[in-house]
Amino acid sequence: MSLFDRQVADDVARMTHAIKSYVIRPDRPFIYNSRIISPDYQDMRRFAMYAGPRERLIQYFLEALDSTGVDFDIIAGHESADIPFQAIVADRLRKPALVVRKEAKGHGMGEKLMGAYPDEIKGKNVVHVGDLMTKAKAACNVAFEVRGCGGYMDFHVVGFDRLQGGEETLAKLEPHVNAISLCEKDDSFYQVGLDMAAISKEDLGAVREYGTTEESQRVWATKFLRGHPEFFENELKQPGAVVDGEIKKPDALEVLTKGYPGLLDEFKPVVIEACRGLGVEDPENILDKVALTGLGKG
Known about the structure:
By secondary structure, the protein is an alpha/beta fold. It has helices at about 5-20, 50-65, 85-95, 135-150, 165-170, 185-195, 200-210, 215-225, 230-235, 250-260, 265-275, 285-295, and strands at about 1-5, 20-25, 30, 35-40, 40, 75-80, 95-100, 115, 125-135, 150-160, 180, 240-245, 245.
């Protein structure tokens, strides 16, 4: 990942910590969309709530785009966290705004593209403006859709890079996508947080142990779950997770079926007991049902 500017990165870091966009919670890990768990979470959408930081971030996006020397035809974003930034950037540049869905919908036009027809993208130079990048799954999705319509996407400008392999993923695309970040989760980012007393050395230790590789993260998650088997019951007790004996939010169970399937057999008895205590119907087979149907995904 190519960092746009060190001073910009430090300023974005200060704003991030000031508005509590970055949170470390090792005692109750966050569940990511991929259903892995992590002791920290970066929510760039917090910037949308604060006019001053939002304005500075948008200005940095504009400067980063200008640094490419490319006059982009379309400003693209991926649903949904990209939209506040991508839409404002498109408005400032007086350019068309395109949003790419995670998946096509079964109603309306049934397209993955929001607001544009494929022939309106053909031959156009598109840039993806994103909130943050982990493994670049969203950026790959945008590039695939844009290029599938005959458009070009050579740049991905992102507000925050978690440094978890996104750059390598984009480099493998053919043609590759150049990535530019305004801020990244590096030592400078952590130091800013420590100087502001926004994070503690103890919590930072958990994040460093978690690391940035799939192996280190799997090891951390395994250690946490074995030390805190009550994690599954506590998550199922969250509001709306279980309603009238039915699991409506299966995220915690998908930590096993999707995030760490290698741990499923080890923790299956724990999950069954937790579900039985919460009155979940057919607890013995609940993990199989979650794996097959994704309960609550209606």
